[in-house]
Design a protein that fits this description.
Elements: E1 25-29, H1 39-43, E2 48-52, H2 55-65, E3 68-74, H3 79-89, E4 96-102, H4 104-107, H5 110-119, E5 120-125, H6 130-148, H7 155-159, H8 168-181, E6 187-190, H9 197-206, E7 215-219, H10 225-233, H11 250-253, E8 258-262, H12 269-281, E9 283-284, E10 293-294, E11 298-303, H13 307-312, H14 318-324, E12 327-330, H15 340-351, E13 362-363, H16 365-373, H17 379-393, E14 398-399, H18 421-439, H19 444-451, H20 455-465
Parallel strand pairs: 1-2, 1-3, 3-4, 4-5, 6-11, 6-12, 7-8, 8-11, 13-14
Antiparallel strand pairs: 9-10
The protein binds adenosine-5'-triphosphate and magnesium ion.
Adenosine-5'-triphosphate binds near residues 164, 195, 304 and 344.
Length: about 475
Amino acid sequence: MSGEELDCKTESFGFRAGLGGESRSVLVYCPTKTLPFREDDITSHGWNLTRAGAWGTARAYMDRLGAGVGIVCLQDANEKEITEAEALLGYGNSRFRWIAILDLAFLKSAVANHLISECCLDFHVVPVDVPRLLHSLGHALGMANLSRVRPQQSVENRFEKNIVGTSQAIKATFRRIAKISQSDAPVLIQGETGTGKELCALAIHAHSSRTSHPFVAVNCGALPDKLIQSELFGHEKGAFTGAHQRKIGRIEAAEGGTLFLDEIGDLSLDLQVNLLRVLQGGTYERVGGTETMHADIRVIAATHVNIEKAVGEKRFREDLYYRLNVLNLEVPPLRAREGDVTALARHWFDMFAAEKNPQVRGFSRDAFIALSQHTWPGNVRELINRVRRAMVMCERQLIGPEDLGLDYVGSYRDVPVEETLAEARERAEREAICEAIEKSGGNLSRSARSLGVSRVTLYRLLDKYQIAHRLPRD
Ligand SMILES: Nc1ncnc2c1ncn2[C@@H]1O[C@H](COP(=O)(O)OP(=O)(O)OP(=O)(O)O)[C@@H](O)[C@H]1O
Ligand SMILES: [Mg+2]
């Protein structure tokens, strides 16, 4: 290796296929001139070193290789170097395995602690123990290669981690997302409020070839006309009062990636013209600027209003509508996703576990019935809010319909809902207790005997299922 910084060496990029015959390449990010180890100590063991002194060079290498091994050297790192290292370690995908080399003083800092624990496989303190570094490199290469041979996932469970649901309707959505992400054409996502339009846009981006570039979201409805112009296209210094310096617009920020235009139906007619130009010719100007900018972005737009109606009423340009609506995704409302409500309630219960009232353990059977009977005008967002509120407010072990702010209509026997083994056991236990008490005319000693438990155990169970207060004491 010669010079302070080399361009990526194409000949060292290619991993030979499989776990055994890999090329032993390692990217070394070192912002200072001197490496913290002797190059020969590493290369003499069959490793090719590619050095990057700046983030741009490292990024090009990572894009080419997809997965690999990297060493990040941070001695006396200044703020800029730390920011670059953070960008590098968190870049794009998790298929690069990193080893940090740093000095003892920096190791003790909070920022180093965070970087290493979150992003690195191993770390070494200078002076570097070469045999241990070689061992780390071998380990990192093994891990990186494992990430290359991940088992193939089915289309559906590729999305299930973030988009909860197993209904036919959501599975059809997963299949559409998979197809849409293979293309680079504009997408229009439609669906009621809170159905998960943004989540689907993120899934499309994450599974597209643009995944290692930014996903930038703009809510067209939340910004006043004047601001949205400069928000989207950026502005030059002095373009208007208060424009003290040049500002990069969201289109520019999304370069190489995806621009998500939420609530597109709220965009003013003026801005619709400008956006049409970007979609047609890929060009635009910053506000107050004369330079023609070229945009390499994929546009995904979303709306919960009936955009076809807006076109009919001339509130939305027909030509823009056709430009955006090349691919279309209709996100189904929650009421059309049979069985997903309980799965979503459980998922969000786990997500908010840290903030719940400590004694709250889950949902009562009645709660699940109430959840499946509700029509969900606010869809998943409404469900999340109800679950979160109930977890904080509920004063018993099991969340009931009243904690969710829902009316409970009818008997649970009428409504088929999914049940876990634990819930089935609890329901059977509860029913057996109620039956025994009813048969004994409310006499707890006799009930306990017929159930084959002690009175103390019965009291505990009455308390657990909160049925004690309804009974006459014996
Ligand atoms: N299938 C799902 N699984 C898990 N979480 C979901 C699902 N669908 C939506 N959510 C969650 O519901 C919330 C609303 O989703 P999102 O913002 O994507 O909806 P939206 O359709 O864009 O809403 P709006 O119309 O209000 O803009 C988010 O917190 C999202 O994470
Ligand atoms: Mg949204």
